[in-house]
TrEMBL record:
GO terms for molecular function: hydrolase activity. Gene3D superfamilies: alpha/beta hydrolase. It comes from Streptomyces monashensis. This is Alpha/beta hydrolase. The keyword Hydrolase applies.
């Protein structure tokens, strides 16, 4: 499926979000919500591999170009409200898919309005990465985006120094990560400032939660996944073999295939 349009949608606080639309814009489809350190562009290969819905709408959340700023009133609820505005614009949406922080946004949005199906890949919830907030604040204040990327990978994700060196060796990939680290401290702070409801995805007819095989039962993503799972009583759980948190980058076709198989009838 190829991208057909990019659309700008006004949201609260004099900000806006853009969406990349693949397939038939007016047809019932899937809305994709990326998480922290990602944007609509980094999800293009996954969107292009999806065929089970006639349209795929990838949200470029506020805080990442060409969408608007986070604004001073930013919170997790801001993200939920932004997603609801997108759903108003694409009112034939049949399913939501969110990754990581985006997964949390989708299950919370399904508390506020009915949705046929919610799919979330390793959604995270409070407490998550809270210990890294002081270091991220310093890095943000000094615009040290290299340090931000290092903190995410070493202090939050728990990757090795060698892994970070491998990332740095890919100059184009590292530049993308630096660019996407701008809103990181604010987004992680918002996640940890919000006490989640006892029940998530209350108004979803069907909920499918996905975990990468490599993260099953391990911190931080597997344990946060388990926390979310306890708040979504009616969820079905699926495992993506051989993958961790970054399946959209490392195995986009495989993730797209799994999403196709999960499409509700």
């Amino acid at each position: 499926m190829e991208r057909t349009i990019q659309k700008k949608i006004a949201v609260s606080g004099d900000s806006w979000v853009t969406v990349d639309v693949y397939g038939e814009p007016d047809a019932p489809g899937l809305v994709v919500v990326p998480g922290v350190m990602s944007d609509a562009y980094t999800w293009r290969h996954v969107a292009g591999s999806i065929a089970a819905w006639p349209s795929v709408v990838v949200v470029n959340r506020r805080g990442r170009a060409p969408s608007g700023p986070l604004t001073n009133s930013y919170s997790l609820q801001t993200e939920v409200e932004d997603l609801c505005v997108v759903l108003d614009e694409f009112d034939s949406t049949r399913a939501l898919f969110g990754w990581s922080y985006g997964g949390l946004i989708t299950v919370l949005a399904a508390n506020e309005r009915p949705i046929h199906q919610v799919i979330a890949y390793e959604p995270v919830m409070r407490p998550f990465g809270r210990h890294a907030l002081p270091d991220l604040k310093v890095a943000e204040e000094t615009a040290d985006w290299d340090r931000c990327v290092e903190i995410v990978n070493r202090q939050i994700s728990g990757f090795s120094a060698a892994h970070v060196e491998d990332l740095q060796a890919d100059h184009d990939g590292w530049a993308i990560l630096r660019r996407l680290s701008g809103p990181l401290h604010t987004e992680l702070g918002a996640l940890n400032a919000t006490l989640p409801p006892d029940v998530m995805a209350r108004q979803a007819d069907q909920v499918d939660l996905i975990i990468g095989q490599c993260n099953r039962g391990t911190a931080p993503y597997g344990t946060s996944f388990d926390n979310v799972r306890r708040h979504v009583a009616h969820a079905r759980v699926h495992e993506l073999p051989g993958q961790g948190h970054l399946a959209h980058m490392q195995a986009p076709a495989g993730l797209g295939h799994l999403l196709n198989t999960l499409a509700a009838i």
